[in-house]
Amino acid sequence: MITQIDAQAVATADQLQSQVDKSQIGQSLQVTLKRNGSTQRLAVRTAELKAANQ
């Protein structure tokens, strides 16, 4: 479960989407998540979302 994007807490899918929407395409984001009882931090890079028919 994702708990933070760039140190901003996210508790819902809408909050997560809002944080990602604020970023630029190609921007690196720090994602904090909880998996199997442990906290992990990952660096991810945003990309343009392509339409399903492309």
Describe the fold and architecture:
By secondary structure, the chain is α+β, with helices and mostly antiparallel strands. It has one domain. Helix content is 17%, strand content 41%. The chain is built from one helix and four strands. The chain has a four-stranded antiparallel sheet, with helices on one face. The N and C termini lie far apart (29 Å).
How many angstroms does the end-to-end distance come to? 29 Å
Low-confidence stretches: none
Structural class: alpha+beta
Helix content: 10-25%
Instruction: Indicate the overall shape.
Output: globular
Q: How many strands, which pairing sense, and closed or not: the largest β-sheet?
A: 4 strands, antiparallel
> Hey, roughly how much beta strand do the residues contain?
35-45%
Count of the separate structural domains: 1
Mean pLDDT, all residues: 93
Physical arrangement of strands within the biggest beta sheet: 2-1-3-4
Order of helices and strands: EEHEE
Figure out the total of helices. 1
